[in-house]
Amino acid sequence: MGNIKTDEGLKRVIGIPGLSLNILNNTIGAGIFVLPAIVSIALDGFAIFGYIFCGIMMAAIMLCYAEIGSRVTSSGGSYAYVEAAFGSFAGFIINWLFFFGFGILSDAAIINIVADSLAVIFPVFKNSGARGLLFFILIAFMVVINVRGAKHGLGFVKFITIIKILPLIAIIIFGFSNINAANLHWENLPSFKTFGNTILVLFFAFAGFETALNVSGEIKNPKRTIPLGILIAGVFVLIIYILLQTVTQGVLGTNMESVKNAPLAAVAEKIIGPAGGIILLVAAAVSCFGNVSGDLLLTPRLLFAGANNGIFPRFLGKVHPKFATPYWAIIVYGSLIFGLSISGGFKQLAILASAAILIIYLAVILAGIKLRNKKENAEKSFRTPGGLMVPFIGIASIFWLLTSLSKWEIGSTVIFIAVICILYFLMKKYQKKKNVLGEIRNDVVVHTE
Prior knowledge:
single chain; Amino acid/polyamine transporter I; 17 helices; globular
């Protein structure tokens, strides 16, 4: 039953373990290797409460995703949800914000972190030519795996996720015996502004789960798998983050400032010596590689879904006759990551990412509210408890975080959305003209006959 092709031509091969590991892979990234220092320096012993507060905010958003994800089960995740509720125009904006404003720019930045990490051990990767070759090999490898089937791509993501989590769990287990309880106390509460800025950083450390839902058209029994997969992964991420913060802060204490660029590596060195730093450096590179490999499995489904709905070129909606994967969407997405990663263009555009994901979250929550009372697909679908309370918490959290963004982040996002709107109406005008010409040709043929 799980491998039967859907009406999109894809196979439902992803179960609860696969979805949970995908969420873990996309959420736990390179940021975790520096996050404990950022939070500790800002909040001191109050850091754990920051994680709990942020966890509540993210839980509200995750629950909204769980509800709408159990109702709308076609490919595209956030895009499919918004398109189902508000139509093609809103869907077009969300698709572009996700795949370009957030996905490609983030992946291009992350794969450069892979090269930066390896360059510490192998200086040759400081050279632009060597970096370009590395990017080509890594991206081509990931493209081939994902074209050969969602099951192959998922298997690789599972493997990478386990590899990247093991060092973190090891730090937690072996680091607890080195904790100094005095390092976990705090003398003064942080200011509201400091707390807000730190929560913004923490919030984006929890982001990433939504990308795993882009393959919603390939998830087995989505009405059950999506809510459970989100719940399991969300709880695990929160526990891992809190334990890592406790161990890192408890071990390093006032030394956190001096090792703020690599706090986990510093803890590893205290536990097993200099080799610990190297292990954590490699773990950071693997973690980043895992993020990009996960995105190459997940985000091309946005292009695929958009092509099926007529907002992107038709060839992006083609399914491989043997592997049942959206192979052109995967190839194009990988090529765009490669182009931006070697050009450095992502650095100028990365300012879009923060506002883009907040707007996507807001649109999905509003879509969930609109679709909540529709009877279609309502049977056996997940329903968020508490009425509108949970969506309200999610919306309030997003608006609060939007006020924390810089004017450049907000301004660049407004301009980007304006360009997307113009592109949409030009595309619709072209399609209308093409349809009219097609009708004229058909009339000519009919009259000739």
